[in-house]
């Protein structure tokens, strides 16, 4: 409602046009956002070339992983949109146990939630569900709770802040999330 009102007032010339005025109110409070950089001793960052668009040059071995933890709960789809639009990133993909542990500890420290969205999705397939990262990086690591990913329908993935295990969760559920930027 607020964004519609601001847009109408902007079109009428009552308020100035600004990116912040028209921004989505989904993450209004800066206190809901924590930005962190992964220390170099963690090796889980894929090289920039592993996640970039084809044809864009990168410097091998110079990848830096930066994460933003958003405490404001959103659906998986809305979390993806916020990562893309506000931070020019994506929901975090995890490619090794050190990154998993690092993100679990950060999420545990900076949220009071038991689960946070990460960028994994599972699709129904026979005999087991197939999984992929929304950033299209390779599926080379997983840390599922026994019995997960759940079969039978599309599920999104949450990282449990208590034990670091992943759970299949209905995508419409609202959770805090981790963006990789």
The dominant shape is: globular
User: What's the CATH class label?
Assistant: Alpha Beta
**Whole-Å distance between the termini?**
29 Å
Strand order of the largest sheet: 1-2-8-3
Tally of individual helices:
5
Please give the share of residues in helix.
10-25%
From the helix content, strand content and strand pairing, which structural class follows? alpha+beta
CATH topology annotation: Mannose-Binding Protein A, Chain A
Q: Could you tell me the mean pLDDT?
A: 77
Could you characterize the architecture of this molecule?
With 181 residues, the chain is α+β, with helices and mostly antiparallel strands. The chain has a single domain (29-180), classed as Roll (Mannose-Binding Protein A, Chain A), CATH 3.10.100. 24% of the residues lie in helices and 25% in strands. The protein has five helices and eight strands, in the order H-H-E-H-E-H-E-H-E-E-E-E-E. It has helices at 2-11, 19-22, 48-51, 76-87, 97-110, and strands spanning 33-37, 66-74, 90-91, 115-123, 130-133, 155-160, 166-169, 175-180. A four-stranded antiparallel beta sheet has the order 1-2-8-3, sandwiched between helices. It is globular and about 40 Å long. Residues 1-28, 39-43 and 47-62 have low confidence and may be disordered.
């Amino acid at each position: 409602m607020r964004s519609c009102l601001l847009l109408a007032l902007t079109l009428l010339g009552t308020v100035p046009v600004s990116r912040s005025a028209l921004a989505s109110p989904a993450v209004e409070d800066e206190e809901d956002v924590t930005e962190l950089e992964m220390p170099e001793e963690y090796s889980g960052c894929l090289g920039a070339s592993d996640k970039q668009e084809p044809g864009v040059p990168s410097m091998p071995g110079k990848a830096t992983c930066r994460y933003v933890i958003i405490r404001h709960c959103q659906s998986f789809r809305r979390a993806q949109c916020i990562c893309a639009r506000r931070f020019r990133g994506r929901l975090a993909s995890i490619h090794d146990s050190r990154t998993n542990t690092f993100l679990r500890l950060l999420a545990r420290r900076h949220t009071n939630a038991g689960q946070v969205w990460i960028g994994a999705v599972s699709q129904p397939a026979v005999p087991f569900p197939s999984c992929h990262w929304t950033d299209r990086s390779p599926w080379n690591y997983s840390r599922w709770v026994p019995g997960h990913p759940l079969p039978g329908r599309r599920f999104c993935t949450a990282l449990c802040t208590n034990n670091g295990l992943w759970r299949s969760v209905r995508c419409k559920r609202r959770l805090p999330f981790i963006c990789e930027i």
